[in-house]
UniProtKB/TrEMBL annotation:
Transmembrane stretches, start-end: 17-34, 54-75, 87-105, 111-132, 144-166, 178-196, 256-274, 280-298, 305-323, 329-349, 370-390, 396-415
Organism: Rhodococcus daqingensis
Cellular localization per UniProt: Cell membrane
UniProt KW keywords: Cell membrane, Membrane, Transmembrane, Transmembrane helix, Transport
InterPro entries named among the record's database cross-references: MFS, MFS_dom, MFS_trans_sf, MFS_Transporters, Sugar_transporter_CS
Record membrane topology: Multi-pass membrane protein
Keyword Cell membrane assigned: yes
Protein name: MFS transporter
PANTHER family membership: INTEGRAL MEMBRANE TRANSPORT PROTEIN (PTHR23517:SF3), RESISTANCE PROTEIN MDTM, PUTATIVE-RELATED-RELATED (PTHR23517)
């Protein structure tokens, strides 16, 4: 059955505003599926399943990160081969059992399996909404498109984290918080099946009209790279793509730390579940709303220094969380962490879109997201091991130092991928 629109595709936000808006809504539902776990699951592991070792408690993030990272890579390849819409629908089908398993889990192993499924689902759905929005808007508005996409996703993470915190405080850790996930999965599957249209034709249109960069920097990145060449260029060889990949990994290493250890740190300080939920929501809320601004600004100001500054701001925020002892200090630090992430998150995706040829852009996005979401697994393992050995605050300081170094790598190695429209002297 064909899902391609009958009229010829046109690039740009305005001619595609209806489908773009629909995909923003779909990605908000994707974010909500993730947000149902942010406040409740670390507390569930500690209070219901009796997990005391930090490494064991973070195991759900580790398997989520591995599953999502691997699926991100294959999502790009699959969407090039079969189309974007089928991959999106497959992702929602995988999501359906997740909230039910979390509600009925008799042991922590059920939670682990549920998070493998959640990682696969997130890899398929979130990756595909990213690629579809890039397809629709064309080259001029990528930063804005990614800002809207990530704002919707992480705004929903924040709202759901806040809602589940209050539901858990009022009605217990199960089942009330996860009933939201059932509703999100049903809505996401319905919209993706019945209303979303295929966008691969837009990518083909852009590929047919693609103009090489005048400075010749990307001449080796032609339109017929193999999967292996796309992987090696994005991961290691091409300076901007590989710098973005390492920064993405470290960014989500931070997020894995925040997801898994912050609720435990705050609970140990005597905060209520409601206040923990508020802190768990504040960070992605600032992150989500901030991307409405930062994505568009990167189209005007360029990508490189926004990424470097965002990584350094995250490092400072993590240090403040490690030093903090009160709700007020942690709230300020959580807002700073969200602001730093907002500078980085849509800008990294836009820089990938700047450099990658439309013919293999979906695979480049998939490779980047492989590394980025691999950060969840690295963060869970690193934070768990350091926390078990030296304590939670030592784990936070360790990640803060890695984040500062990552920003330095961007500052030294990455070049500007999207210079402002006004003429300026060529890059060296």
């Amino acid at each position: 059955m064909s899902t391609t629109a009958t009229r010829p595709p046109r690039l740009g936000l305005r001619p595609n505003i209806a489908q773009f808006t629909l995909l923003v809504v779909v990605n908000a539902l994707v974010g909500g599926m993730l947000g149902q776990e942010r406040t409740v699951l670390p507390l569930l592991g500690e209070q219901v399943f009796g997990l005391r070792a930090y490494t064991a408690g973070l195991s759900f993030i580790l398997v989520f990160g591995v599953a999502k990272a691997a699926t991100n890579y294959f999502a790009g390849t699959l969407s090039d081969r079969f189309g974007r819409k089928p991959v999106l629908v497959w992702g929602w089908l995988v999501a359906i059992p997740v909230p039910l398993m979390l509600i009925w889990a008799p042991s922590w192993s059920w939670v682990i399996v549920a998070n493998v499924l959640l990682g696969i689902s997130q890899g398929l759905t979130w990756s595909t909404t990213v690629v579809m929005k890039i397809d629709l808007v064309g080259p001029a508005r990528r930063g804005l498109a990614m800002g809207l996409n990530e704002a919707a996703g992480y705004g929903a993470v924040a709202v759901t984290a806040l809602a589940t915190g209050y539901l858990a405080e009022s009605y217990g850790l199960r089942p009330a918080p996860f009933l939201l996930g059932i509703a999100f999965a049903a809505l996401g599957l319905g919209l993706s099946t019945l209303a979303v249209r295929e966008t691969r034709g837009h990518a083909r249109l852009e590929a047919a009209t693609h103009v090489a960069h005048a400075d010749g920097r990307h001449d080796h990145l032609h339109d017929n790279l193999t999967n292996r060449e796309v992987f090696t260029q994005t991961s290691f060889h091409e300076p901007a793509l590989s710098s973005a990949s390492q920064a993405g990994l470290v960014n989500n290493l931070n997020d894995g730390l925040a997801w898994g250890l912050f609720p435990i740190l705050f609970a140990a300080a005597g905060l209520s579940v409601g206040k923990i939920g508020l802190l768990a929501a504040l960070y992605p809320a600032v992150w989500g709303v901030g991307q409405l601004i930062t994505g568009a600004l990167s189209d005007r100001w360029g990508r490189k220094w926004m990424i470097a500054a965002g990584m350094w701001l995250q490092a400072i925020a993590l240090g403040l969380i490690a030093l903090g002892e009160s709700f007020a200090v942690w709230a300020v630090a959580a807002a700073m962490l969200g602001a730093g992430t907002a500078l980085v998150y849509p800008t990294l995706l836009a820089s990938i879109g700047d450099v990658a040829h439309p013919a293999w852009r979906a695979r480049a996005v998939g490779t980047y997201r492989l590394w980025r979401d691999g950060g969840f697994a690295v963060g869970a393992l690193l934070a768990g091991v350091v926390a078990d050995a030296l304590g939670v605050r030592a784990a936070i300081w360790t990640v803060a130092a890695l984040t500062a170094v990552s920003g330095l790598v961007v500052a030294v190695r990455m070049y500007e991928t999207h210079a402002p429209e006004t003429p300026r002297s060529p890059h060296p």
